[in-house]
Amino acid sequence: MKLLGATRNEGKQAEIRRVLEPAGIEVIFPDQAGLWESPSEDALELADTFEGNARRKSQHFARLSGLPAVADDSGLEVFALGGAPGVRSRRWAGATGSSQAVDAANNAELLRRLLGAPEARRRARYRCVLVYLPETDAVPRVFEGVAPGRILEAPRGDHGFGYDPLFLSDELGRTFGEATSAEKDAVSHRGQALRALVDALRSPVP
Prior knowledge:
Elements: E1 2-5, H1 10-20, E2 26-28, H2 50-65, E3 69-78, H3 99-113, E4 123-133, E5 141-151, E6 167-169, H4 181-187, H5 189-202
Parallel strand pairs: 1-2, 1-3
Antiparallel strand pairs: 3-4, 4-5, 5-6
């Protein structure tokens, strides 16, 4: 089958391809479908929840493309910060520019907020909510994944994106920035949600 991945984030695109394509699912992304970025897309991520944002994105891109669409919204939740940055993970520091510049600013803000915090206050989790919309008027199907860990005092590793170099995975015993793609996909929040989607597509609702 063919579906549209409703994201322009290159890191997310790579992870989506790695999980879905081996399962026989052809994935294209907005630019490949001729859906060029527009300022109106900024309003798609103004909901208060991951699911709300993912629903808005899947509906928007399913309507424009005429294809089944899958959208994720995900982020880092630090318990001692009341779950922040949460749904604001991408926009937390208010930075603009390249993905690398935005990531660097967000990581610097996270380190600033947790400066001097003991290990017990560095507990965190990555959370992903995935919404699959087979057609614009269909009932969305929702999948979720959670990856527990803690935030380090300094980054480790050059892989991944976002907060990955600061996030020490409980399952891996190393940061997502140090992990290989296969290692990260096996335990990550997005990998879990995508595999749940694959399982659902193999066993469709009657």
